[in-house]
Amino acid sequence: MTVSSSTECVIVKYEGRIATVMLNRPAVLNALDEATLKELLYKLKEVAGSAVDVVVLCGNGRGFSAGGDIKSMLSSSDESKFLPIMNTISELVVTLYTMPKLVISAIHGPTAGLGLSLALAADYVIADTSSVIAMNFIGIALIPDGGGHFFLQNRVGTTAAKRIIWEGKRMTADEALKAGVVDEVVAQDFPKAVREKAEAWLQKPIKAMVQTKQILCEGNKQSLLQVLELEKEGQFRMRATADHKEGIAAFLEKRIPVFQGK
After folding, report:
1. Parallel, antiparallel, or unpaired for β 132-134 and 110-112?
2. What's the DSSP call for residue 74?
3. Is the separation of the CB atoms in 174 and 130 below 8 Å?
4. What single string gives the DSSP state of each residue in 118-139?
5. What is the full DSSP assignment across 152-185?
6. Do 190 and 216 form a contact (C-beta atoms < 8 A)?
7. Tell me: the pLDDT tens digits for 217-249?
8. CB-based contact 155:129 (threshold 8 Å)
């Protein structure tokens, strides 16, 4: 039996022991605005308390998520919203990372910025060959948030994490696999491959797997919380820089930014 549960921007589908959580803003490549972040947090908490054993996080339309919704950010001049939004992001990431289920991120198309941070919070990242993957905050003179520093460092090491963050370049799925950013790349019938991965896990002793996950998460949770706090403080400072203002202007004007290190 299939049961669906949805908000305006997030769809959850329950099928037996599997729950699929889908970002649902396809017109904007599932860009993450305040409403979507809150709805995703609400739905992840719902799933965490459900009877399923495996959760699949994915995006509707042409991509997983293009990252934070820059246009939404620019439409509001209310700086008092910054800290509450960052707190929501932190709670969302911790909820996803510590979920007492096995979590698969199934990514395709654009998977960037905060969208990539969320994807990396899962236990396993499987990518369609269409994936275009980037930790691209540097393009507007910002730093990764959503635990991006933590997840990249854990996956690829400190030196490679710095390179990926500082370059901010787009990676193909195969490049991301070679770098250690994703765990698997699928060339054909992506939905079937994701389903097979979830069902393969269901044939294993899930309780033992989740127990291992929780032990490792508990050992690393304090480091994640510290990184989230440092990202929040650092992002607040970066938003006030001249380089960030130039990055935003260049984004709106569709030109290459000219940064001056200020």
Report:
1. parallel
2. H
3. no
4. HHHTSSEEEEETT-EEE--GGG
5. HHHHH-HHHHHHHHHH---EEHHHHHHHTS-SEE
6. no
7. 999 999 999 999 999 999 999 999 999 999 999
8. no
